[in-house]
Design goal:
The protein is α/β, with parallel strands linked by helices and 308 residues long. It folds into two domains: 2-114 and 238-307, 3-Layer(bba) Sandwich (FAD/NAD(P)-binding domain); 130-234, FAD/NAD(P)-binding domain (3-Layer(bba) Sandwich). It is 22% helix and 29% strand. The protein has helices spanning 11-22, 58-62, 64-71, 134-137, 153-163, 182-189, 289-307, and strands at 2-7, 28-32, 75-78, 81-87, 90-95, 100-108, 112-114, 130-131, 145-149, 168-172, 194-197, 200-208, 211-219, 224-227, 231-234, 238-240, 275-277. Helix 1 (11-22) runs parallel beside helix 3, helix 1 packs parallel to helix 7 and helix 5 (153-163) packs parallel to helix 6 (182-189). It starts with a strand and ends with a helix. The structure holds flavin-adenine dinucleotide (FAD) and NADP nicotinamide-adenine-dinucleotide phosphate. NADP nicotinamide-adenine-dinucleotide phosphate (NAP) binds next to helix 5. Residues 7-13, 31-34, 38-40, 42-43, 46, 48, 80-81, 109-111, 127, 132-133, 136, 241, 244, 279-280, 287-290, 292 line the site of flavin-adenine dinucleotide.
Length: 308
């Protein structure tokens, strides 16, 4: 029986591992299906993690984290977790190969994944002008023009954020009405730096070895507009990686909201005793490395306190 199973080895999972092992827990296993580090390792530039003196790649930022945790006894198992379920007072962790482990406590840190729009050039220029994170990358486009794609709350809120930094924001949406909350739509419509490009979609993102040089926008009547911008922010929805919480009957192990985000309190406790969620997977996650790390620490400190 493990003292603690951590599912996911991004900033939340690694920090949970650090705090749990330094807090004296002996058998702590972090299950990570790939290399530890999480989604930030896809980023070519990060400059808002406290304490870094210059822009680093996500890979550079995360490289020392696993070693630091392992020093205190965290065990890393490279395995995909299929399901976490209740087993007595503890939990059963089912792995992809059919193997099972039992743990007294579980912290789920499986993160989230931005949806792709499926546009030509989107994958090619991802991280070189194509972004899913305005808080992370907006500053790189200070006083420049950018495109935002999407008509939901995220797209409109991020467009407003970018309008504070960029010289102009083209908000491209495939319809002429929005999913976003009416007051957010009002704010966007009243912002002089945001131009609405409605009934339109992005046809292609083009560029060269240095990155994005522009995007082609096509309206519903087939008219094409060439916007020569260095950046495009795509917000067409997020997938919360909550599959591990889905039970055999299709229900979730703990309470989730309408978007599948795990409902937690300020201690990262879920609705199930002994089960915690940390990082991008939880409700109202700011979706930042520093916040995910903080969540991981909070959850692990709870487990440590309960274990002594
Ligand atoms: P993740 O980092 O998503 O980690 C989850 C981990 O769980 C992954 O490693 C995944 O492989 C693993 N996992 C998932 N399911 C399973 C399973 N079933 N079994 C085993 N393992 C599993 N934030 C900033 O603060 N600043 C930035 O500049 C910044 N830039 C970004 C740029 C990009 C391109 C992206 C994609 C994100 C950026 N972010 C940035 C956001 C930041 O990366 C996330 O908020 C943060 O990584 C969330 O951490 P997490 O630990 O909750 O989840
Ligand atoms: P969302 O509500 O699903 O909106 C996605 C948007 O992207 C939609 O406008 C959709 O267009 C568009 N879209 C989807 N696929 C596309 C494609 N391939 N090409 C072009 N456009 C595409 O996603 P979200 O904005 O990330 O929000 C997710 C959930 O979180 C929502 O329920 C949202 O309300 C919630 N949220 C809430 C807040 C808040 O309350 N402050 C903040 C952020 C998010 P259509 O509209 O035409 O389908």
């Amino acid at each position: 029986m493990l003292d603690l199973a951590i599912i996911g080895g991004g900033p939340a999972g690694l920090t949970a591992g650090l705090y749990a092992t330094r807090g004296g827990l002996k058998d702590v296993v972090m299950y990570e299906k790939g290399m530890p580090g999480g989604q930030i390792t896809q980023s070519s530039e990060i400059e808002n993690y406290p304490g870094i003196k210059e822009v680093v790649t996500g890979m550079e930022l995360m490289e020392p984290w696993p070693e630091q945790c392992m020093r205190f006894g965290l065990k890393h198992e490279m395995a995909e977790v299929i399901r976490v379920s209740r087993a007595g007072d503890g939990f059963k962790v089912l792995l992809a190969g059919g193997e099972e482990a039992e743990a007294k406590y579980v912290i789920v840190c499986t993160g989230s994944t931005p949806k792709r729009a499926g546009i030509k050039g989107e994958d090619e220029f991802y991280g070189r002008g194509v972004s899913n994170c305005a808080t992370c990358d907006g500053f790189f486009y200070k006083d420049k023009e950018v495109v935002v794609l999407g008509g939901g709350d995220t797209a409109l809120e991020e467009a407003l954020y970018l309008a504070n930094i960029c010289s102009k924001v083209y908000l491209v949406h495939r319809r002429d009405t929005f999913r976003a909350a009416p007051n957010t739509v009002e704010k966007v419509k009243n912002n002089p730096k945001i131009e609405l490009v409605l009934n339109s979609n992005v046809k292609e993102i083009y560029g060269d070895a240095s990155g994005v040089k522009g995007v082609l926008i096509e309206d519903n009547e087939g008219h094409v507009r060439d916007l020569k911008v260095p950046g495009i922010f795509i917000f067409v929805g997020m997938n919360v990686n909550n599959d591990v919480l889905k039970q055999e009957d299709g229900s979730f192990l703990c309470d989730v909201n309408e978007w599948g985000e795990v409902i937690v309190d300020l201690s990262m406790r879920t609705s199930v005793e002994g089960l915690f969620a940390a990082g991008d997977i939880r409700i109202e996650a700011p979706k930042q490395v520093v916040c995910a790390a903080g969540d991981g620490a909070t959850a692990a400190l709870q487990v440590v306190a309960k274990s002594h």
